[in-house]
Amino acid sequence: MKQTNTTFNNYNLTKNILKDIAAMGFKTPTSIQAKCIPPALDGKDIIGLAQTGTGKTAAFALPIIQKVAHNMDMAALVLAPTRELAQQIAQTITNLGKSSGARVALLVGGTSIKEDSKALGSWPNILVATPGRLIDHIFSRTVDLSKIEILTIDEADHMHDMGFLPQIQQIIDVLPKKRQTMMFTATMSKKIEHFVRRSMHRPKRIEIGRVTPATRAEQKLFRVNEDEKLLLLMDLLSQKSQRILIFARTKRKVDQLARRISALNKNVARLHGDYEQSQREMAMEGFRNGKYNILVATDIAARGIDVANIEHVINYDFPSSAEDYIHRIGRTARATSSGLATSFVTRSDLSCLKHLEKMISSKLKLIHVGSENSKPYANKNRKNQNKNKHYNQKNKNHAKGKSQYNPRRRENKK
């Protein structure tokens, strides 16, 4: 997060807010905060473009707290694509608005209706929600959005990827026409921009830098075959103990990798959409406090992970979009830290890699496994892999012997 030379005292924030800012350890605003807070406090609609880890949450949270913390009614709505991100936002707003009277309610999937009723019955003035869960309450008429003064949509690009735009439009349709709207995203297609501008009034576009992977992250891309990935991963994990986040494409792959890694006596947690909310919270808390030093997750489940000091992000499966690559890399090298991002690239991933390079206007070096540049990982893995291939072939040949089940054999018939 690039810091500025200004301080939060320059923004005419209340003493209570400044007190909570100091308590959270924030000293100077980041670039996105410095550019967004003044117009947001003035009531301007905002389109904010900045990559993950630049302080976007505080950029909209502080103006929201300043403007609605004194309200008795629910006056601000924040939409996030995933449970984890919504929880992170709600916690940040709660911390920054602790002394100002901010009352935050959280509506996400995976929690009971009883818990939702309790949250909505606590007279919140700020609501943080995922689109699907909020739609359920709108249809059930268990939430009142008629007094909303500020709407914020976070990670609009991922909202689009997950197919949430129709639901967001349904939510917008029941909100007051006269309101302030802020939208934040790391990347923006023409389709998304057209969608958000339809519901905004002369928005101020704020873009912080070119949309690229975190500049402090060292990126290593390995050209591998699919059957080389696991051995390469195991070798990477054996190098030294770090806090590592591993991305896999499917829930099944996440479970498989977690089992293989745990067999190496590694403290590993997993995160994907099939887990109950309590399980997801336990995994995240364990990863955050150091109980687990490795987390294996799918993209959707991992959105919103805000864990300090993730030294290494590994793309076991290369992301299918350039936007997802940027989000993943943004999980390391947060704030002023540095980090390492390793990606496994197979032949089928080369078109995605080409699109990424075009988007960021940069050529990424691709290391072929087995080359001198891939040491100490690749050559060691190549040797182990050859041993495994020999072992597997031996077992396969043995399986073809007489002990193999043959339905035509008389002794196999009932």
From TrEMBL:
PROSITE patterns xref list: HELICASE_ATP_BIND_1 (PS51192), HELICASE_CTER (PS51194), Q_MOTIF (PS51195)
Coiled coil: 247-281
Bias kind Basic residues: ranges: 380-401
Listed PANTHER family: ATP-DEPENDENT RNA HELICASE DBPA, ATP-DEPENDENT RNA HELICASE RHLE-RELATED
Region (Disordered): 371-414
A Pfam cross-reference name: DEAD
Similarity annotation: Belongs to the DEAD box helicase family.
DEAD-box RNA helicase Q domain location: 6-34
Domain Helicase C-terminal: 216-375
MF (Gene Ontology): ATP binding; hydrolase activity; nucleic acid binding; RNA helicase activity
Source species: Uabimicrobium amorphum
Protein name: ATP-dependent RNA helicase RhlE
